Amino acid sequence: MAPRRKIEVFTAGCPCCTEAVQLVEFLAAGEHDIEIRDMHDAAVAVAAASYGIRRLPAVVIDGRLADWHAGYGLDEAALTQAIFGGRGTFRRSRTRGNRRPSGAQSGHSC
C-alpha cells in the first residue's frame, strides 16, 4: 500500500474546478488526505503563488504542483499517476466526456 499523500486542490468554484475536485475525491478519497483550497481567500492565493500556480484548477501533491492538464481538459490518467506514484496500474476508472475550453480568462483552464 502506498503511503498517504497530502493532496491540495486549488479552486475558484468554476465548473472546471468543481470537476477537478470531484475527480480528485473520486480517485483518492479514503486513501489520501484531501484539502480543498478556495482561491477567494487571500492566504490561499499566497500559498498558490508559493507553489507557482498560474492556472486553475491546480492540484498539489505532497508539496509539488502536479502537471495533469492535457490539451483541452483534465487528464485523469496523469492525475492518477501523480497520486498513486506510478504503480503501473490504475486503481479506478470512469468514463469522462470530452471537454472543450470555454474561453474563460484569468488563469482558469476551463
Helical coverage, percent range:
25-40%
Structural class assignment: alpha+beta
User: Termini separation (Å)?
Assistant: 34 Å
Low-confidence stretches: 87-106
Topology-level CATH name: Glutaredoxin
- Please report the total strand number as a whole number: 6
Which strand order spans the largest sheet, edge to edge or round the barrel? 2-1-3-4
Write a brief caption for the model:
A four-stranded mixed beta sheet has the order 2-1-3-4, sandwiched between helices. Strands 5-6 form a two-stranded antiparallel ribbon.
Keywords:
110 residues; 30% helix; two-stranded antiparallel ribbon; Glutaredoxin; alpha+beta
Question: Can you offer a commentary on this structure?
Answer:
The chain has 110 residues and is an alpha+beta fold. Helices cover 30% and strands 20% of the residues. It has 3 helices and 6 strands; from the N terminus they run βαβαββββα. The strands form 2 sheets. The chain has a 4-stranded mixed beta sheet, with helices on both faces. The longest helix is centred in the N-terminal third of the chain and has 14 residues, at 15-28. The protein is globular. Mean pLDDT is 77; it is low at 87-106.
